[in-house]
Amino acid sequence: MKQGVKFFILTVLLVSVLVGAYFAYQALRGDGSAEITQAQSESVSEQSSGKAADFKAVDANGNDVTLSSYFGKPTVVNFWASWCGYCVREMPMFESKYKEMGDKINFVMVNLTDGDRETLKKATEHIKENKYTFPVLFDTYGEALQTYETYTIPVTLFINSDGTVMEKYTGALTDDVFTQKLSELS
Q1: Band of the pLDDT at 157, cuts 50, 70, 90?
Q2: Are strands 75-80 and 64-66 parallel, antiparallel or unpaired?
Q3: Less Cβ crowding at N or C end of the chain, within 10 Å?
Q4: Is the pTM of this model over 0.85?
């Protein structure tokens, strides 16, 4: 009898661990419903000050591009994916501001292209369907994600012309907040 009870308890524990691991994996992987719901802003004092950390990504033509190649002009970097509802809702605002201010401020939309949940095909179809004209980089190397620890999206970096990160904004931007942040950059 003791042997049967031990086996039963071990089986229940094993099943519990497996179920817990499954749910932990789903939470880490995300399903689109666990996106950020409240915006957070970090000033330079809350992160390492100095030049924005560089990363390499791929442009729409397949060329390698570095973030530092945009320095010399204020730059807005937005990390997004087509499966992220908040990201998708922000994109028309980015397009509008890009058309309005693209000569004064660099707009760089970094797609977190992991090859699984977000592919080049999904991202480029989304851009094409919505007729977006802002520059898009594809983080196929995973460097942007790791460099800026972008595990919750959307995230927007506001970088001044000398390449210093002025602010890291986590969450969906409203038009008013975005306009204010852009005016602080230019």
Answers
A1: very high
A2: unpaired
A3: N
A4: no
